[in-house]
Amino acid sequence: MDVRFATSFVKLVLDCIDREYPHSQLCWFDSDEDIKPPREVTPAFYGCLDWHSAVHGHWLLVRLCRCFPSAAFADSARAALDCSLTPAKIQGEIAHLQKRPFFECPYGFAWLLQLAMELREWDDPQAKAWLVTLAPLETVVATNFQLWLQKLVSPDRTGTHSQTAFALGLVLDWARSRSDRNFADAIATKARQFYLHDCNYPLQIEPLAYDFISPGLAEADLMRRLLAPIDFANWLSNFLPQFHTAEASQCLQPLQVENPNDYYQAHFRGLNLSRAWMLAGISSHLPVDDPRLAPLHTIADLHRQHGSLDVTSNCYASSHWVGTFAVYLATARGLGC
């Protein structure tokens, strides 16, 4: 990541952060009163096609302003953040969650907490002020996520927004950044319950559909956060024995996007990028002499290269969200937790 690419990603977000339509929202309507324009329902995060993309679009702006504080885009990015993160708008978000406590849970909730974590780690006066504004919503989201987790009986093993392991990994990073031992322990307990005894995962069947997350790699990327390196290495041998074979790279090939205007096919851009960062996370926690490191690095690099192709495309199917995945990968966000 250099300032040139950072600028292009910021531009993608600024082009849609207040673009209300087209809009996609899965929501339960109880009456006519519930049918309102997106800007009235979720006044801080209504652009970028949907709520979760708007949230992690804001995360991208914070992340890149933090990484490139002197960049030319900093002023416009800060102005956009200042426009969204106001007390009145955040209260509007809280009011929405009071009606629908698990709206966009777990995926959107995980990114909201990542946004709060990024602000908290940034030693900047304006960031501190935004964090104070966002904090009440952060508290509501964290509380509701924990309630959701307590009631969760089995994990979602698909490759899209409802996927459990991916969200648990992001929220665990947030909980640890807050030194919230109870929350982190609750996530660890569920993760061990769901995944500790998994074995022989058929990675070759992925993607399951139009995935933007690999269910198998997301699970492994979560477990590397919880297990000591030698224990993780043993767990990985049971879970993904394919990586021990000479044909390891054949079980995971990058996906092609034939029609960049197709919203479902665009998911494959994110899948290539998220696979790359999850493989990097998995590799980072293996012993230095593990024979799987070389093939894992090769597979990760291949996905990084494919995921980076045309990543700043103006096709709205990708441009409203895929920059976040590129920035998360390029700035090694998940490895810094």
From TrEMBL:
Give the species. Answer: Chamaesiphon minutus (strain ATCC 27169 / PCC 6605)
> What Pfam families has UniProt attached to this entry?
DUF2891
Its protein name is DUF2891 domain-containing protein
